[in-house]
Design brief:
The protein is of the alpha+beta class. The protein has 6 helices and 4 strands. It has a 4-stranded antiparallel beta sheet with strand order 2-1-3-4.
């Protein structure tokens, strides 16, 4: 059975690593051997070509043959945007959980009135509102910049000119950033709605623990809107 090229390449690498000790001693102690996948083929070389810089790879010490590092592939623009979104959301969630915990523990011992309790929630709502406003601003800015880039590219195509690769890449990256900001904005808006429910529930719980009756406007059912009558001239 004839071994496939990948197997042959691997055997050659192992043979090189298993060179006599005298040859290894003469090798540059800082020299590396790189191995990465290119399609279905395993490539190993003592130089790393530009097209493999962002690929996942293993690095070996050319003298000892031991693996010195394992490098993960570079993230795409969309993956970087998703990672930033996840990090921002994790920070907000952690702050929310910590604030909720402190609020529940201190509710009865600290707050003498509903106004004191409302001030605590006001700090959180201010943070989320500021995040929403920032996201809205970023979305508007990114949308405006993307529209300008698309207009420029469209004018070039209408004039029979080729859109440069860099400009096309910038448009794709700007679009990815815009989508990420839109997701972030929606996440903050959903959190704001959930916070409104939490505030109402916490105030109701506070009144219950303190034995305070709920205000009339919190329990009364609003009157039905009367049907519109005929227009009087």
């Amino acid at each position: 059975m004839v071994p496939n090229p990948s197997t042959i390449a691997a055997l050659l690498v192992l043979a090189a690593l298993a060179a006599p000790a005298s040859a290894q001693n003469r090798a540059d102690p800082g020299k590396k051997l790189y191995c990465w996948n290119q399609g279905n083929e395993r490539i190993c070389s003592d130089t790393l070509p530009p097209e493999a810089v962002n690929s996942a790879r293993e690095e070996f010490n050319a003298r000892s043959g031991t693996r010195s590092a394992e490098i993960q592939r570079a993230l795409t623009a969309e993956e970087r945007a998703d990672a930033a979104l996840a990090e921002a959301q994790a920070k907000v969630d952690a702050a929310t959980a910590e604030t909720r915990k402190r609020t529940e523990q201190a509710m009865l011992a600290t707050y003498a009135s509903e106004d004191d309790l409302r001030r605590v929630f006001a700090e959180r709502t201010d943070i989320v509102d500021n995040n929403i406003n920032t996201a809205v601003y970023n979305v508007a800015s990114l949308r405006e910049a993307l529209a300008a880039q698309l207009l420029s590219a469209g004018n070039k195509e209408l004039a029979g000119q080729k859109v440069a690769d860099k400009q096309a890449a910038d448009i794709r990256q700007r679009h990815t950033e815009l989508l990420a900001q839109l997701r972030l904005q929606r996440a903050f808006e959903q959190q704001r709605k959930a916070m409104e429910v939490e505030i109402a529930e916490s105030l109701a719980r506070y009144r219950e623990l303190k034995g305070i009756p709920a205000p009339a406007d919190a329990t009364a059912t609003p009157p039905a809107t009367p049907p519109a009558g005929p227009v009087q001239s």
